Amino acid sequence: MNYIEENIYNNKEFIDLLEQKLSKEDLIKLKSSINTLLEVLTNIK
Hints:
Blueprint: H1 3-10, H2 12-21, H3 24-44
């Protein structure tokens, strides 16, 4: 597992907490931003 993948894996607990706190609209925006970031990072490799 590379550094980025490891950090994403380690942050799953944090994301679970965010899901409990954020509104559905905010959660959708966050997931969209994360997906965009992952696409960019994947293209850098």
